[in-house]
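User: Could you go from structure to sequence for me? I need the amino acid at each position, not a summary. C-alpha cells:
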C-alpha cells in the first residue's frame, strides 16, 4: 500500500505544471471565480509573481519543480487546515505533498465562494 502512494505521488509531481495549473483555474471558473483570483491565492501561497507563473506555464517545468521552487512560501500557509480529497492536511507527512494540498485547499475554498480575506488568512 505504501509503495502505491509513493508511486501515485511521483506521478502527480512529474505532471507538467502547464497541464495542472489550468485545471485549477477551470475548477474555480466553473464556480464563478476568476483566473485572477486563482493567481492571487497562488502568489500569496508561493511567493511567485503573476509573471513568474506565466513563465512557468510556458516552460516544461513539472509540478514538483513548481513546488520546490517557491520563492517565498507564505508563513500563514500553516494556518490552512481541513481536508482535501478526504485527507486531513495535518496528517500529511510528505512536505511536498502538503504544499500541493495547500494550493488545492485554497482553490477549493475559492470555488466554494469563501471570501478572499478568509482564504488569505487575514
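Assistant: Here is the amino acid at each position, in order:
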Amino acid at each position: 500500500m505504501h509503495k502505491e502512494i509513493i508511486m501515485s505521488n511521483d506521478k502527480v509531481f512529474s505532471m507538467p505544471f502547464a497541464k495542472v495549473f489550468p485545471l485549477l483555474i477551470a475548477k474555480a471558473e466553473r464556480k464563478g471565480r476568476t483566473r485572477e483570483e486563482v493567481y492571487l491565492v497562488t502568489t500569496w501561497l508561493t511567493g511567485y509573481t503573476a509573471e513568474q507563473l506565466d513563465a512557468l506555464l510556458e516552460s516544461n517545468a513539472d509540478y514538483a519543480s513548481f513546488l520546490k521552487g517557491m520563492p517565498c512560501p507564505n508563513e500563514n500557509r500553516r494556518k490552512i487546515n481541513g481536508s482535501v480529497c478526504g485527507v486531513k492536511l495535518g496528517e500529511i507527512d510528505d512536505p511536498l505533498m502538503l504544499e500541493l494540498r495547500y494550493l488545492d485547499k485554497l482553490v477549493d475554498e475559492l470555488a466554494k465562494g469563501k471570501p478572499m480575506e478568509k482564504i488569505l488568512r487575514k
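One structural detail worth keeping in mind: The chain has seven helices and two strands.
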